[in-house]
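Researcher: Here's the sequence for the chain we discussed earlier.
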Amino acid sequence: MKFRKTYFSILMFCATISYAQDGIPTYSDYFADNLYLLHPAMAGAASYGKVRLTGRQQWFDQNEAPNTQTISYHTRLGDRSGIGAILFNDKNGYHSQVGGYLTYAHHIMFSRSKYDLNQLSFGLSAGLMQQRLDETKFDPNEFDPVIAGIIQSTSYLNVDAGLSYNFLDFAAHFTVKNLLFRNRNIYTEDYESNNQRTYLMSAAYGISSNQGWTYEPSFLVQWKERTNEQAIDVNFKAFKSMDFGSVWGGISYRRSFDGAEYLDGTEVKNQKLQYFTPVLGITYEKFVFAYTYSYQTGNVRLEKGGFHQITLGYNFLDGKYRHWEQDMRYNGMLRPNTR
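Model: Thanks. This is the structure I predict for it:
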């Protein structure tokens, strides 16, 4: 029985950081040129508009495996405003959530011109979410027969807020997700917290070379207030400028600060959640394509397979500025010309 409890605990732990939250799970979408999914202050922060479509699937050989789809749009309005919108669908076994966000961002320029970037941005997203727990497929022999056959659903509003600062080749972001306390009551009132707040902090720095290469180290730290879960992403990407646009690739390493015990024979061990996520991408004129694969390491894993994700994008209204460096800096991430 102890083995079953410890084994279950680590499986729940491995899923907690990625899935147990309101809104869009914090995956590696941002690593594939999609910072707006994490940080509302990035709505309209670039010198061009963006449309991004992502699809993420885990364990193709398993039914009810976790999968997420998002579509996002954001653009600049005038010199100081940005707007954005996100729709998402997230499913993990018997639990699913769908929803959308509308975003407004305000950008304050401290530099004398748009070619000497020094910008502070504030963003606010309001989201409507519907969560659903489908118990109709529960086996009464394995689950409590009292709850078998029930479909529970709840809808509610929540708010994300954040700020971003871009200065030349440096960018920093801070966001609080799920600011409002919400009683979803989709599981049980005794165990389900109404505090789903998650704090995200990230930064990136671009390093250019004379051979057409640009390098970008970055990191992301996340912390959940109610459970005190913490994790860090350490990332590195390289971009190569081409006649048609750019090619780029990189690697991300995620590690949690929290451990879970499991029984290995007669020995009790501790394991921390760890992911390696390589990314490959190409920008052809105004179109963007990226593929990421996340692989979990450790002795205890739900499956040997990993997470597959595809990102499709389109950049528009990007003809206002002369230098590709400024487009990259407005994006908070240096990258070669997309035109």
